[in-house]
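Handout, page 2. Input:
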Amino acid sequence: MKSGFAVCAVSAVCVASSAWAGLVNPLVPTWRGSANTLFMGWESFTAAYAGPNAADMAGSSNLASLFNFAPTSALTGSGNIYSGFGSLSVMVMGGVSLAPRNPTQVVLNIATTGAGAINDSSVALTLFDNSGNSRRLTPAATEIRSSVASSGGGFPGNDITVAYSWTVPDLVWNCTRWQVDFGSTGIHTSLDAVSLDMNLVPGPGALSVLAALLPGATRGRRRRC
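Output:
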């Protein structure tokens, strides 16, 4: 559980003390930790605006960074990203291991606290390759996993954990990188924690790679008389 006190936001506007719970009852896919999966999680942020935030949850891949592009944001004492004068504008950018490989399922959990919440219509997953192809996908399912009144002082609001999931259709090209976007519904929203899981198409085995590189390698030898 995460707790702390907010610090003064931009323009010397201070946020009263409050508590944060992190992800509460997140949607954890059954395939997390299996072969051909990626996991990334953020519990504490180090850059409020434009700078990269590396995933810091145990077991996280280093293949992605989280950015917030709301210029009126500040870090709280507990490492949240707090937007006091506008909406959060968050982008998570990353690549796939052993690229190119296509995701088949994606699960995103977001925890916020404060007067605002995540704007469901802003949530999207975009896949890219290295030849200019892209595919933008909205979540197939959205579920509020927990919502309780904020436990601390400060602005009234709720501690909310919401889960978004995608089932990715077959692509005729191979994904090498991806982007997840989301924003908040209004001011006084604090981004508390994020987790992202991806289930990937299995990568080619060593023999398959050899066969692709040496087309004749898999042919049987000619029998000698």
